[in-house]
Amino acid sequence: MAQKRIDPYTALIIQPEVNVVDDREGIQLNLERVKNMIHFGVGYHWEVPVKLVVLPEYFLQGVGTPGKGESKIEDQLKKAVTIPGPEIDQLGEIAKEYGLYICGGGVVESVPEFPDRWFNTNFIVGPSGDVVLKYHKWHINASLGLGTSPHDIFDEYCEHFGGGIKDLFPVIDTEIGKLGTMTCHDGCTPEVSRALGYNGAEVICHPGAIQEFEGVSEPWDFWRFTRRTRAHDNMCYVLGANWGSVNYDFYPKAFCPGHSFAIDYTGMMLREAPYPNEQVLAVTVDIEALRQYRTKTNHNCWIDVRTEGFREMYTNPIYPPNRFPSGKPPKALVEKITICKEVFDDLYERGQFTPPAGMGPKDVSEQLQKRIDYAQQTGRLKKS
């Protein structure tokens, strides 16, 4: 059956000021701000109608990182929401009003199947006002994120939600193209975007809370060059939303300094907001041009994939699964960081990594433990 033509449309990438809140009651301030920014963007770009909106990670609740402002699991659970729920329903009303798909991410979500923890969750609401996709962040940085990855409880998670690639990395086929989503650290390595590409994604909505420490600005534009690669490899749009500025006692205002962007299916940067401030970025998405581009054989990043030679890379675990089963969620970041000692041991013992001069394979994990001990003794890292 011939596909129906999809006319070019406008996508909005929202770069808001975010407040790190203490409880669920504080969420509304953040929510009102992004709602008004959506209203502005839809009205301003009326000539090529807006059909898609992308919001950043933790846009509802914010999050704390190591140091005096570190969030422990009980801190985040105080502000956890359900999806769907009253907060997401408010965005659903806007989606229904204008005929939009709205993607947001990093939502601190309470899931009834696992009541002792929270998930870092992306959602997409559709023009019906309903949640049409939900994704739980896979690559959660051990040193920064206390949300539960499906990998942390992999066997149990698969029993409840399914363990196939389409269950873990869902893509929906819509009247504006095939939409998928990944969150922040998911974009640092190829696997999640590759899974979305495998499932047919044409637009990857990419909420992030990308910190300057991780390289957002020149000369270390890590945020951009990795995501340009994700778009190029999968021949899809990547729409990345970051915070514009933040209000939190333990963060600089430009902790996550903007640089939200739109990247096309060739890896080309189309638009960017290269500053730490609020902005609504608009870009034209042309799905028909993408689909035409994918018909070419020359430099097609999918038709030349030869998988057989790479299987050994994924046969054995690296960061081990099932380490935080039901009843044993991580209470503080140190519990996840400590597991990295095992990962270091594995990488060095098999010769993939070579230790620095004067160090043996086991010395690296011992060094990490010494660093953890010092950080805890001096108040830089909270204890469990």
Automatic annotation (TrEMBL):
Annotated GO MF terms: hydrolase activity, acting on carbon-nitrogen (but not peptide) bonds, in linear amides
CN hydrolase domain ranges (all copies): 9-287
Regions of compositional bias (Basic and acidic residues) in chain numbering: 363-373
Gene3D superfamilies on file: Carbon-nitrogen hydrolase
Residue segments, region Disordered: 353-384
Signal peptide: none
Name of the protein in its database record: Putative amidohydrolase
Species lineage: Bacteria, Pseudomonadati, Pseudomonadota, Gammaproteobacteria, Cellvibrionales
